[in-house]
Design a protein that fits this description.
The protein is an alpha/beta fold. It folds into 3 domains: 187 residues, Rossmann fold, CATH 3.40.50.970; 156 residues, TPP-binding domain (Rossmann fold, 3-Layer(aba) Sandwich), CATH 3.40.50.1220; 185 residues, Rossmann fold. Helices cover 38% and strands 16% of the residues. The longest helix is centred in the first third of the chain and has 15 residues. It is globular. It starts with a helix and ends in a 23-residue tail after the last strand.
C-alpha cells in the first residue's frame, strides 16, 4: 500500500465499542488496520507483551528479526524509500530505543516516513532510573516529526492513527511512539479510526496561483532557465510533471543526489548531478542561468558550496512543501509553498513552448572537460580495478533498472555519478546525515519492499563492517539482495581529503580488513573475491544470477580519488577536475 493510499484508507479493521483487548493487541490490530504487512524489530523486556501479541498474528504481519536495532530502522528506511509505504520498527526500552536514534536522524533529514514503536518501563517507574529506562521521547524530539509516550491502553489506537498521518503527510518523516509496559498489559475497548486531521497541523498547503503566475512570467522571459530537482519530486510522485515541464520549455534538469531517478538519466534534457562530487557542467552552469527553478530540494551546503558565490545572477523560484526550507539558505524571488506535483503540473500547463537550444548546447560543451575523467574512471587498463569501472560494468548488466542502495563515501559518489538511474525510487542512499553502515540493512529492507525488483547494495569496506551483522538477518530470511563491497583498505573519502588538504598525512584511515568472503560464507551466502579486471564481468554476472542472496568483494585501486570536486568552502564554479 502506497503512502497516498494509507492517507485515504477507510477503516477496514474496526471493532465495535464492545470489543476489549489488552494494549499490546490493540497496537498490533492498529498496525493491521493501517495496512502494515512487514515490520522490523528486536524484542526485549519492555516490548515483550507486544511480541506476545504478534505471535498470534504471524499470518498477517511479517516480522523481520534483525541483529541490531540500528539495522531495523535502516531496513525500515530502505523499505519505505523503495516501496513508498511507511516503514515500521519495534524495539525495547533503554539501549534498544537509543540504538534507533541514528536512523531517526537519518530519516528526519532525508524525509523518510518511518514509525518507531518502543517499549518503556511501567508508568509508576518512570523517572526512577529503573532497569533499561531511558527518556527516549525527549532524546528523539529533535529528530522526529512527532514523538509521544503512551501510559494508557485507551490511547494506543489513536496514537497509531496520528502517527501514520503525521509520518506520511506533507514532508514525510519519522515518528516515535513509546508505550509503557503497564499500558501494554491493560485491557480496554478498541475501535480503530484512521486519522485525517490534526489541529494546527497543515501538511499540504493551498497552492497560490498568483505566485505561480509570477513564476510562469519569469520562466517565459528567461533565456537560460534551469531546473534543480530534489527528492521532493520523488516524494510527491511528480516525475511525470517534471519531465513535462522540462520538455515543454526545453529546460535542462540537474538533480541532487537524492533526486536521482526523478528524470531518466538518458533523457536529452538531463544534464547530470549537482554537488561536491557532481558533474562539471551542471555545477558550472548554476552560475550561468538567469532563472533557477528549485523543486523539492533544500539548497544543502554540499550543493551550494559558498552561498555568497552561489548563482548570484539568477532569479530563484523555489518550490517546496516545507515552508521552513524556503528562504532558509538561498533567497527566492518567487517562493512557491506548494505540493511539487501540483505546482509542476500548473507550470507545465501554463508556460510557453520554448527552445533554448544554445543554452542546452552549453552543457554539452562543458561536458567535454569531464570526458577524460569519465573515461579514465570507467575504462582503465592498468592496475587494480577502479570503482567507476565496477559501476559501469554493473550498469551494462542491469540496464540501469535495478534498485541500487549505497553506503557513504567514495563508492557512493562514484555510483551516483556513473550508475544511470532511469526510474523513481531506484536510488537509495543516506544523503543529509551521511550514515556509514546504512546500505546493508537498507538494501534488505528495500528488497522486502519491492521483491519483484533487483536490489543491489554497493558498500565500502569501512561501512560494511559497521552493520555486517545483518548478514544473519539476510541468511535467516533468505533475502535475495546482491552485495558488492568495493575494498580499497582505506576510509576512502577521508583519505582523499587528507591527500588533498592535509599533505597526505593519512591519520588513522588505513584499514587492515578481514577475509570478507570468508565471513559472508559463514552466513551460508555465496561469496567471491575479485582482484583482476579480467574476472570482473563474469563475477558480476554470477552475483546477479544467484537466485538468493550473494556477495562480491572487488579489491579496487587503493588511493583513487573522486573528481570533479568542489573543495569545502569554495564556490561551485570553483569545481576541480583534478
Amino acid at each position: 500500500m502506497r503512502v497516498k493510499d494509507v492517507l485515504q484508507m477507510k477503516n477496514k479493521f474496526s471493532r465495535s465499542a464492545g470489543s476489549m483487548y489488552v494494549g499490546s493487541e490493540i497496537l498490533v490490530r492498529s498496525l493491521i488496520a493501517e495496512g502494515v504487512s512487514t515490520l522490523f524489530g528486536y524484542p526485549g523486556g519492555a516490548i515483550m507483551p507486544v511480541y506476545d501479541s504478534l505471535y498470534h498474528f504471524s499470518d498477517q504481519l511479517n516480522h523481520i528479526l534483525v541483529r541490531h536495532e540500528q539495522g531495523a530502522i535502516h531496513a525500515a528506511q530502505g523499505f519505505a524509500r523503495a516501496s513508498g509505504e511507511v516503514g515500521v520498527v519495534m524495539a525495547t526500552s533503554g539501549p534498544g530505543a537509543t540504538n534507533l536514534v541514528t536512523g531517526l536522524a537519518d530519516a528526519m533529514i532525508d524525509s523518510t516516513p518511518v514509525i518507531c514503536i518502543t517499549g518503556q518501563v511501567a508508568s509508576h517507574l518512570l523517572g526512577t532510573d529503573a532497569f533499561q529506562e531511558t527518556d527516549i521521547v525527549n532524546i528523539s524530539l529533535p529528530v522526529t516529526k512527532w514523538s509521544v509516550q503512551i501510559t494508557r491502553a485507551e490511547d494506543i489506537a489513536s496514537a497509531v492513527a496520528k502517527a501514520f498521518y503525521v509520518a506520511c503527510s506533507g514532508r514525510p518523516g519519522p515518528v516515535l511512539i513509546d508505550i509503557t509496559k503497564d499500558a501494554q498489559f491493560e485491557k480496554t475497548y478498541f475501535h480503530y479510526v484512521p486519522c485525517h486531521y490534526v489541529k494546527s497541523y497543515r501538511p499540504k498547503p493551498t497552492m497560490n496561483q498568483h505566485v505561480l503566475i509570477r513564476a510562469v512570467e519569469l520562466i517565459n522571459a528567461s533565456k537560460r532557465p534551469y531546473i534543480l530537482a530534489g527528492q521532493g519530486v520523488l516524494l510527491a510522485d511528480a516525475s511525470v510533471e517534471l519531465i513535462r515541464l522540462s520538455e515543454k520549455g526545453n529546460i535542462p534538469v540537474a538533480s541532487t543526489i537524492l533526486g536521482l531517478g526523478a528524470i531518466p538519466a538518458d533523457h536529452p534534457n538531463y544534464v547530470g548531478m549537482l554537488g561536491m562530487h557532481g558533474n562539471y557542467s551542471p555545477n558550472i552552469n548554476t552560475n550561468q542561468c538567469d532563472v533557477l527553478i528549485a523543486v523539492g530540494m533544500r539548497f544543502d551546503d554540499r550543493v551550494t558550496g559558498d552561498i555568497q558565490k552561489y548563482a548570484p545572477q539568477a532569479r530563484v523560484i523555489h518550490i517546496d512543501i516545507d515552508k521552513a526550507e524556503i528562504n532558509k539558505i538561498i533567497h527566492a524571488e518567487v517562493a512557491v509553498h506548494a505540493d511539487a506535483k501540483e505546482a509542476l503540473a500548473f507550470l507545465s500547463d501554463t508556460i510557453d513552448q520554448n527552445e533554448h537550444m544554445d543554452w542546452l548546447e552549453s552543457f554539452k560543451k562543458l561536458d567535454e572537460d569531464e570526458k577524460k575523467i569519465i573515461f579514465d574512471d570507467c575504462h582503465p587498463v592498468d592496475g587494480l580495478p577502479k570503482m567507476g569501472e565496477v559501476i559501469r560494468c554493473l550498469a551494462d548488466l542491469t540496464g540501469g533498472d535495478a534498485v541500487v542502495v549505497t553506503d557513504v563515501g567514495q563508492h557512493q559518489m562514484v555510483t551516483s555519478r556513473y550508475y544511470p538511474f532511469k526510474h523513481p525510487r531506484t536510488n537509495i542512499t543516506s544523503g543529509g546525515l551521511g550514515t556509514m553502515g546504512f546500505a546493508l540493512p537498507a538494501a534488505m529492507g528495500a528488497k522486502l519492499g519491492v521483491p519483484e525488483k533487483q536490489v543491489i547494495a554497493i558498500i565500502g569496506d569501512g561501512g560494511f563492517q559497521m552493520t555486517l551483522q545483518e548478514l544473519g538477518t539476510i541468511m535467516q530470511y533468505q533475502i535475495p539482495v546482491k552485495i558488492i563491497v568495493l575494498n580499497n583498505n582505506f576510509l576512502g573519502m577521508v583519505r582523499q581529503w587528507q591527500a588533498l588538504f592535509f599533505e597526505k598525512r593519512y591519520s588513522f584511515t588505513e584499514m587492515k580488513n578481514p577475509d570478507f568472503a570468508g565471513i559472508v560464507k559463514a552466513f551460508s551466502i555465496p561469496a567471491r573475491k575479485v582482484e583482476d579486471r579480467k574476472d570482473l564481468a563474469n563475477a558480476l554476472k554470477e552475483l546477479l544470477a544467484e537466485p538468493g542472496p550473494s556477495f562480491l568483494e572487488v579489491v579496487v585501486e587503493k588511493e583513487e580519488n573522486v573528481f570533479p570536486m568542489v573543495p569545502a568552502g569554495a564556490g561551485i564554479a570553483e569545481i576541480r577536475l583534478k
